[in-house]
Amino acid sequence: MNSCKRSTVVLVAALSLAGICAMPARATSFTFSDEYYISSSSTFHNTFGTSSGYSSAGIYQETNSGNPTITRLGNGSSVPGEYIQNTTPNAVDELVLFGWGQSLNNGQQVAIVYNTADPVNGTNTYFQYKVGGVTAPFTFNGFDLKGATSNSHLQFTLEGLDSANDVLDSAIMTVTGNSFQTETLDWTGITTVEIASTLSLPVNWGSGTLYMDNIEINNPVNSTPEPSTLVLLGMGLLALSYARRVYGKTISVNSGITGN
Question: CA distances (Å), 4 to each of 7, 16, 250, in order?
Answer without folding.
Answer: 5, 18, 18
